[in-house]
């Protein structure tokens, strides 16, 4: 069973420019930072810096096919042994599902390029993944030159 000890994820929050204010789950932080978040619950992260648009991020928890279900299957099969694949693995996966251990967050890093001006930019974890991929693609392109 994945257990409750594995329901915390460390998420790095990086902003450009740095030293932005971050409000997350009652915590007040300054970027860049790392925050420990419960994988089984949704989170609201608000990033502000004077002279820049505020960023409101909704980080959703959910069952991820390869992270949650897959990890639960592999870990319960290893714990209970291949010989009990049906009963032991199923029992462990049921406990993981009930305890929230199968849930996970979609990202372990949040990189935000703050935009000058006023207003609020609303983002979801899907927007973060898209921005992260674009950033990785740009980095690869620069490294090829």
Task: Please explain how this structure is put together.
The protein has helices at 65-80, 87-99, 125-144; strands at residues 8-16, 21-24, 27-30, 33-38, 43-48, 54-59, 61-63, 103-105, 109-113, 120-124. The model is unreliable at 1-5 and 66-89 (pLDDT under 50). It has one domain (4-125). It is built from three helices and ten strands, in the order βββββββααβββα.
Secondary structure tally: strands: 10
**Main sheet characteristics:** 5 strands, mixed
Share of residues in strands? 35-45%
Share of helix among residues? Answer: 25-40%
- Rg to the nearest angstrom? 18 Å
Low-pLDDT ranges: 1-5, 66-89
* Total domain count: 1
Structural class: alpha+beta
Order of helices and strands: EEEEEEEHHEEEH
Q: Supply the number of helical segments.
A: 3
Shape: globular
Beginning-to-end CA distance, first to last residue: 47 Å
Which strand order does the major sheet show? 3-2-5-6-10
Query: What value does the average pLDDT take?
Result: 75
């Amino acid at each position: 069973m994945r257990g409750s000890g594995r329901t915390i994820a460390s998420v790095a929050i990086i902003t450009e420019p740095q030293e932005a204010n971050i409000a997350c789950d009652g915590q007040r932080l300054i970027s860049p930072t790392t925050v420990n978040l419960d994988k089984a619950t949704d989170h609201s992260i608000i990033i502000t810096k004077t002279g820049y648009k505020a960023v409101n991020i909704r980080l959703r928890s959910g069952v991820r096919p390869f992270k949650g279900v897959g990890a639960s299957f592999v870990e319960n099969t290893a714990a209970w042994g291949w010989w009990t694949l049906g009963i032991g693995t199923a029992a462990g996966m049921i406990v993981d599902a009930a305890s929230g251990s199968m849930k996970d967050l979609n990202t372990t890093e949040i990189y935000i390029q703050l935009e000058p001006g006023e207003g609020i930019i609303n983002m979801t974890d899907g927007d973060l993944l898209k921005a992260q991929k674009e950033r990785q693609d740009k980095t690869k392109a620069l490294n090829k030159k």
